[in-house]
Amino acid sequence: MDAKSLDTFILCVAPRKKQWVSLLNCSDLSTGESCDLTTYFNNPHCYYLARVQAFIPDQESNWTSSKLFYPILDTILGPPVVDCTGCGNCLLLQLRPPPSRGHRRQLEFFFSDYIVNVSRTRDKAQFVIRASSGKNLINYLEPGVEYCITVLPVTNLNKAVVPSGPHCAYTSPAPVYTVPVFVAALCALFLLVALFSAALIYRGQLGVLDKLQPRTLALCM
Q1: Is the pTM of this model over 0.85?
Q2: Which end of the chain, C or N, has fewer beta carbons within 10 A?
Q3: Are 114 and 80 spatial neighbours (Cβ–Cβ below 8 Å)?
């Protein structure tokens, strides 16, 4: 049958069987159109079935059903949102769940713990830490060096999680201690003054000798 329109229904199979629910936004679709069912899976503990039927004005097809879909286990969880900035000899991470159209509480449950891989760009030296949602500090890093991190959510139920892409940032430059620099400059200035004074005194002594030398010669004669 050359279908002109499609109707879509979903059914929550568990915890108890209910009636098929017509999806208004997914009804009367033209051939080739798609429909996003995300917002309809509002009970994460349900096993869902979806079915679709094609029809023309005087004829309709048999229903075609999907496989069972369990939101908690079958949803592919997108990458977390990561903000990374340098803070001296550390990195400040801000981790939070990805944007969502509803189901915010469930996302916060899945995106509460993370594995963070930290790599130094210069030589690819790496280490791994555990982190949680919110602000996290990675301490004892080399100042003024670029580090890149990737973040993977840790879940006990759903293993279909997508890690974040690499996020790179420089730790802040090493602090400049002004007191030692000032003392060194002062010592250098004092040394120059001493050398200049010594040179003046030496030249003055030579001048006195030059004046005394002719008179001494005259007396001898």
Answers
A1: no
A2: C
A3: yes
